[in-house]
Amino acid sequence: MLTDLPNVLTISRIVAIPIVVLLAACGTPLMDAMACLLFILAGVTDYFDGKLARSRHQLSDFGRMFDSIADKLLVGACLMTLAGLGRMPYFTLWPAIIILCREILVSGMREYLAERRASLPVTRLAKWKTGFQMTAIGFLLAGDGTGVLLGMPWLHVALIGAVLLWIAAVLTLITGWDYLTTGLRHVNLS
What we know:
Layout: H1 5-26, H2 29-55, H3 61-84, H4 93-115, H5 124-149, H6 157-184
């Protein structure tokens, strides 16, 4: 049911996307900090919606479908916003491209495999990848201006975000390869 708390949390993640994008587009340290905080809240809902759905026995087709979509929309919109605003420091456009390509690849494979009654379960390493990725995007949204805003001008927030995004990209390549080899086992290549 759409009004079950896990589904409400998933929907709230989708609703947060344009707000995060608008806050980031303002380009001031305060708005960047607010974009980061809202992004963090949206990311936290990803953890709780699944946990609550399982504990309350409120698993639904809507939740199974839109949880993954909400995550990909949030990540994709934020990475594209940062790129469009020229806020991808330290060559982080490359890991962003890797992350987006892997998301499209895995989504396509899951759709294909669903028709074959096969699945690609989420691995523990993929969960780590998501953690690094979400943390990195939060730091990149915050930007160095947030460090100044907090009275810590020495804190290179964007550099931290860049390092974390590169780590996420490495994990993305590893998990993407794992998913690809697993998915190809279910494909008739002849």
